[in-house]
Specification:
Number of strands: 17
Radius of gyration: 24 Å
Helix content: 25-40%
CATH superfamily of the largest domain: Glycosidases
CATH class of the largest domain: Alpha Beta
CATH architecture of the largest domain: Alpha-Beta Barrel
Largest sheet: 8 strands, parallel, barrel
Bound molecules: zinc ion
Structural class: alpha/beta
Strand content: 15-25%
Distance between the termini: 81 Å
């Protein structure tokens, strides 16, 4: 069995016993043939007795053919001649790493890029900011990393945790990814999941005084003020510093899980709602997102957000939605897609890699239909698999969450479905991953079952109970007091 994940679309076996010639550098030697008839990322690889030949139309086609050839050669000479016809089902084959909840070093990120390259994934989405940490150096706003990159404790340890990437380090990550044919999408999350920024610059929130970088996870209430024009300026400044670093065309600006607790109390936000004639806060937020998307477009970028929970019809049709579910039912998604919205499929079930193995099982991943019934398939840009790290404190834990699931997901993103020999190939793929520095043993361990699986779910749900509800309540009581005080002051001034 060839040690290939994803498995190629079609393999023809011939006679003869080929010997793959190897060069001085230890890499297989092959002939490159340009073939304009092949699809953009596709390739045709022939391994015969006389020669090894790789046909492709583009550099990425050659790259994927070479990945396949190297994997085959690493297992020795094939037993028969092979002709492999291969091309991906989806253009967008993404993996998201959340570096905000826990900080991952540059080396760890590069190691994960190596894993991606061998699985033919082509988009790395870095979730760079959230309530629990701001991870990107912004020269105009140094407090974002002096204060916003550090929290007093985490769920696992009662000690300070944090870190951030300098702009130079991010450039090195991007160029490392580009050398492996992988695009990098930065995500700066607005206006929710914004506590780390508010902790650094309280004036960005509606009532930012006393806000601290979040220590627990869940949905926090210290979001960006929608009625303060300085917030839009801040966002534009931040994005402008990122343009020379993240040179690919896609930018993610978050947009999910925005509670309106603060807006209701904030005179600026209420005035903005009135000015727009908006019926609810989701509409105000949609206008806010449109303004940032327009700025990105002026700078040659395409905007991605998480899907809107309640479609308001306001977000610009050019904004790409990353479908993670939230409160959006599949029927509403289909309606949105058929009205012209492009979508990346990342449903929490079954594609969130942090969820327990007993919830997002291999079977659920294999069986999930990536094109919802009735949706225009051409509007599905592709698939993306997120690893949220609220419960993933280090690289070793990350790898336990990734493998074997990400292997199966990569196979789906490339082939459109899973090939029946997956489990066998997956165990054997362990050597490929350990050669790239993975901490797993020789074989990829299969997911825990029975009692172990049950304990996995129980542990996850116990942690979920800790979703910051109590810290939110305490903080809300403080903010209500400040709001009342301000209203009183305004009345006295009158
Ligand atoms: Zn406000």
């Amino acid at each position: 069995m060839l040690p290939l994940i994803p498995y190629p679309q079609r393999i023809e076996e011939g006679d003869g016993s080929p010997e793959i010639a190897v060069g001085k550098d230890g890499e297989p030697v092959f002939g490159r043939v340009k073939s304009d008839f092949l699809p953009e990322e596709g390739y045709e690889l022939f391994i015969g007795e006389e020669r090894t030949e790789l046909k492709a139309a583009t550099e990425s086609g050659y790259r994927y053919g070479e990945v396949t050839l190297n994997l085959i050669a690493s297992a020795g000479n094939p037993s028969t001649e092979l002709r492999i016809h291969d091309k991906p089902r989806y253009r967008w084959r993404g993996y998201m790493l959340d570096v905000s909840r826990y900080f991952f070093s540059v080396d760890d990120v590069m190691k994960q890029i190596d894993f991606m390259a061998v699985m033919k994934l082509n988009v790395l989405h870095l979730h760079l900011t959230d309530d629990q940490g701001w991870r990107v150096e912004i020269k105009k706003y140094p407090r974002l990393t002096e204060i916003g990159a550090w929290r007093r404790r985490t769920l696992f340890r009662l000690k300070r945790h944090g870190g951030y990437y300098t702009q130079e380090e991010l450039k090195s990550i991007v160029s490392y990814a580009h050398e492996r044919g992988i695009k990098v999408v930065p995500e700066i999350e607005f206006p929710g999941h914004f506590t780390a920024a508010v902790a650094a610059y309280p004036e960005l929130g509606c009532y930012g005084e006393g806000a601290r970088v979040a220590e627990t996870f869940g949905i926090k209430h210290d979001v960006a003020c929608l009625g303060n024009p300085a917030v839009i300026d801040f966002i534009k400044d931040v994005l402008s510093e990122l343009f020379p670093i993240f040179t690919d065309e896609y930018y993610h600006i978050g947009g999910d899980e925005v509670p309106a607790v603060r807006y209701e109390l904030c005179p600026k936000c209420r005035a903005e709602k009135e000015r727009l004639g908006a019926g609810n806060w989701a509409e105000v937020q949609a206008h806010f997102v449109n303004e940032i998307a327009a700025f990105l477009k002026e700078n040659g970028k395409k905007t991605i957000t998480w899907n809107e929970t309640e479609p308001t019809g306001i977000p610009d049709k050019e904004i790409i939605w990353q479908y993670w579910q939230g409160g959006l039912k599949e029927e509403a998604l289909v309606k949105e897609i058929n009205a012209g919205r492009t979508v990346i499929m990342s449903p929490a079930k079954p594609y969130y890699l942090d969820l327990p193995y007993s919830e997002n099982t291999l079977q659920a991943i294999a069986e999930y239909k990536d094109v919802p019934e009735g949706a225009d398939p051409d509007r599905i840009l592709g698939l993306e698999f997120p690893l949220w790290t609220e419960l993933v404190p280090d690289e070793e834990t990350a790898e336990r969450r990734l493998f074997p699931r990400l292997l199966l997901m990569a196979e789906k993103a490339w082939r459109g479905e899973c090939e029946s020999s997956f489990l066998y190939r997956c165990e054997e793929f362990g050597k490929v991953l350990t050669d790239l520095g993975a901490t797993i043993k020789k074989k990829v361990p299969l997911p825990p079952k029975g009692l172990k699986g049950l304990l996995d779910v129980m542990w996850f749900n116990r942690c979920r109970l800790y979703w910051g509800a109590i810290p939110n309540l305490i903080r809300n009581a403080k903010v209500a007091k400040i709001a009342k005080q301000r209203i009183k002051e305004t009345e006295n001034e009158k």
